[in-house]
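Researcher: We plan to redesign the surface later, but first we want a full-length starting point. Tokens attached.
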């Protein structure tokens, strides 16, 4: 009888242990990745424009924090990537005979180099898949580059994902500068595309709470930054199938070496110790579109009236929490002033109360009365300067997070732009308006 009780107790403990193990939240670990140099076979890219692109691509992986890097000098073509994947799969077969030298398109790997790669977890192969550089409209060079980075799981030779990066560059001076501009845009977009691949999206867990804030595992050691967002995940697996649901949103306010601090934006489930969290990859910018009524006064021109202003504002979010820089472009509907436009460079201070966000913003404003001169000075038919005004912009706002990715807001603002050239009068006024902001 005692034997049966003991066996039953052991079985219960085993089941409980298995259940506990299955319920444990996932926490991402650093992955070892071997990165090949940028392949551009078949494309006539001037060598002098490539510069330090290979170092820049490796720096992307270093800055992400979630990788240990192995640098490789070889450059693959698109065809070479497929050949390399097949070779990895064959290397797992028992009757595979390792050659002294591998050739993948125009790239060569020695036996030692191939064995070194097999010891890694992941291989990254960046390849230029499209390149076009030409002189357009009789006035400037334009270059478009498409780059794919293939991520290969060495364990089974499968493709984990592909990061697609499309960049453009222009120059009115030389083709070299347009190509270099397009290449310089690769690293920033590549980082975002890598974070979007499920295998590299960070998973972590709640460690506990402190003064109402949430403490979560992982910090700068895995590349977490202020302003990053994490979804609250409940569920797990059911009968071997994923049964997960996103029920909340956290915003990172501070980052330490191994622990980060977040606030709760919303959650329909308690955020307690060991709650599963998952990174929401974003480019790191909120794009706001807004319309204002403008209580307008014209500096002595006798055209004081209520007018309308349309604007777009980009607020940088990744790397920032309560104080964020922004840039705005505004157009005032006033034909008497030749559609005055203004650009604002400033900063905003935010206070969060769950889905509500309110705060103040202000900055320097620069204006022009010649819209076509800003868009393209080829259309400017006069000798008048296009930069005609300088001033300030300030205001307050209240926003509500409607969905995880969209905010609606109302705001009040006051602008004043001084016409320093004497060609156009100074103008300004108070504004009331509303808009929608998209998290990118």
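Model: Full-length starting sequence:
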């Amino acid at each position: 009888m005692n034997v049966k009780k003991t066996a039953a107790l052991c079985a219960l403990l085993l089941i409980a242990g298995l259940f506990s193990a299955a319920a444990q939240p996932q926490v991402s670990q650093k992955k070892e990745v071997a990165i090949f140099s940028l392949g551009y076979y078949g494309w006539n890219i001037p060598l002098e424009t490539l510069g330090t692109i290979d170092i820049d691509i490796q720096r992307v992986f270093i800055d992400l924090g979630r990788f240990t890097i192995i640098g490789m000098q070889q450059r693959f073509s698109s065809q070479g990537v497929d050949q390399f994947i097949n070779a990895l799969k064959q290397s797992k077969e028992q009757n595979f005979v390792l050659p002294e030298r591998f050739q993948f398109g125009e790239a060569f790997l020695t036996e030692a180099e191939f064995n070194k790669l097999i010891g890694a977890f992941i291989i990254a192969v960046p390849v230029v898949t499209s390149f076009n550089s030409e002189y357009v409209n009789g006035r400037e060079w334009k270059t478009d580059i498409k780059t794919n980075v293939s991520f290969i799981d060495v364990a089974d030779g499968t493709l984990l994902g592909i990061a697609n990066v499309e960049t453009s560059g222009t120059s009115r001076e030389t083709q070299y500068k347009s190509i270099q501009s397009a290449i310089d845009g690769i690293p920033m977009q590549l980082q975002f595309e890598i974070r979007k691949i499920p295998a590299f999206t960070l998973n972590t867990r709640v460690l506990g709470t402190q003064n109402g804030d949430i403490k979560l595992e992982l910090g700068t050691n895995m590349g977490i930054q202020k302003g990053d967002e994490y979804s609250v995940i409940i569920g797990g697996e059911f009968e071997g199938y994923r049964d997960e649901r996103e029920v909340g949103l956290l915003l990172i306010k501070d980052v330490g070496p191994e622990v980060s601090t977040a606030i709760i934006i919303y959650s329909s489930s308690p955020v307690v110790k060991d709650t599963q969290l998952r990174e929401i990859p974003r480019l790191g910018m909120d794009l706001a579109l807004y319309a204002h009524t403008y209580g307008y006064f014209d500096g002595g021109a006798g055209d004081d009236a209520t007018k309308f202003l349309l604007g777009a504002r980009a607020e940088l979010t990744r790397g920032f929490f309560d104080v964020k820089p922004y840039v705005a472009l505004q157009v005032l509907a006033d034909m008497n002033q030749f559609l005055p436009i203004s650009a604002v460079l400033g900063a905003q201070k935010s206070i969060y109360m769950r889905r509500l966000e309110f705060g103040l913003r202000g900055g320097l404003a620069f204006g022009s009365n010649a819209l076509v001169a800003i868009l393209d000075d080829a259309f400017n038919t006069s000798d008048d300067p296009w930069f005609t005004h300088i001033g300030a912009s300030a205001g307050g706002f209240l926003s509500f997070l409607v969905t995880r990715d969209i905010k609606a807001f109302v705001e009040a603002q006051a602008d004043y732009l001084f016409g320093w050239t004497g060609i156009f009068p100074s103008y300004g006024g108070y504004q009331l308006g509303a808009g929608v902001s998209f998290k990118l």
